[in-house]
Amino acid sequence: VQLQESGPGLVKPSQTLSLTCTVSGGSITTTYYYWSWIRRPPGKGLEWIGAISYSGSTYYSPFLKSRPSISRDTSENQFTLQLSSVSPEDAAVYYCVSSFTSLLQYDSWGQGTQVTVSS
After folding, report:
1. How far, in Å, CA of 78 to CA of 3, rounded?
2. 49 CB contacts (<8 Å, ≥6 apart)?
3. CB-based burial label for 67 (10 Å; 0-12, 13-18, 19+)
4. Along the 119 residues of the chain, how does pLDDT read in single tens digits?
5. How far apart are CA 99 and CA 112, in angstroms?
6. How far is CA 2 from the centre of its chain?
7. For labelling alongside 109, which of 1, 47, 51, 85 has CA 20 to 30 A away?
8. Which of 41, 42, 59, 66 is nearest to 99 (CA)?
9. Whose CA is closest to 27, among 56, 69, 68?
10. What is the distance between the alpha carbons of residues 65 and 105, in angstroms, rounded to a whole number?
């Protein structure tokens, strides 16, 4: 499975960040696969943002409260992250990641996309 992130590299404060992950080499509806968004802020460790399952169920990390939303387009084999009300603290390299059967283990990673939050 290969994953590729796409989206704007610059977002203004208070706006909504939208990133799309295009998956190839496998279907996002394949049973027991989970599709996550993870980020790494500068100088910090990895932060799991949330995931969408093969059946369309969604899971979110509580540290971002209700700001993230993950959806999918099965016809395009893509899943999307929307993060509302961004601030400079949301600047990071964002990765889309696949997992098989467990959200605690990651199988394939996208190359990552840098997001800057600035006016």
Report:
1. 9
2. 36, 37, 38, 39, 60, 61, 64, 68, 81, 83
3. middle
4. 999 999 999 999 999 999 999 999 999 999 999 999 999 999 999 999 999 999 999 999 999 989 999 999 999 999 999 999 999 999 999 999 999 988 888 999 999 999 999 99
5. 16
6. 14
7. 85
8. 59
9. 56
10. 23
Q: What DSSP character marks residue 27? A: -
Q: What is the identity of the amino acid at 106? A: Y
Q: Return the bridge partners of 69, or none.
A: 82
The C-alpha atoms of residue 33 and residue 5 are separated, in whole angstroms, by 18
Decide: helix, strand or coil at residue 51.
Answer: strand
Report how far residue 71's alpha carbon sits from residue 47's, in angstroms, rounded to the nearest whole number: 19
Q: Which residue has the tokens 């009300």?
A: 85
CA angle 8, 84, 21 (to 5 degrees): 45
The values of phi and psi at residue 69, to 5°, are: -145, 130
